[in-house]
């Protein structure tokens, strides 16, 4: 799963999508597309953004929820926290197995 997270984060557009979800969680596909266009000048099709969201969801970085006919996307920071604690965990004493 860690490889999926790194692959998802490798793309600058996906990082912009995550940045947008940090600013305001629970966005629809339309809102994400509009934010990418207005703030970053990325005129991407909804299908292209949807494919990016699918990669982020497969990596566990985005979770979706349905409310009626709308689908909302939320940031899930747990995969990032696991990566950070992997290398930022307290050091073990040298003689500890």
UniProtKB/TrEMBL annotation:
Transmembrane segments: none
Gene3D superfamilies: Winged helix-like DNA-binding domain superfamily/Winged helix DNA-binding domain
Pfam families according to UniProt: HTH_20 (PF12840)
UniProt keyword Cell membrane present: no
Domain HTH arsR-type span(s) in chain numbering: 1-95
UniProt keyword annotations, A-Z: DNA-binding, Transcription, Transcription regulation
Protein name: ArsR family transcriptional regulator
Source organism: Streptomyces cinereoruber
Lineage, highest ranks first: Bacteria, Bacillati, Actinomycetota, Actinomycetes, Kitasatosporales
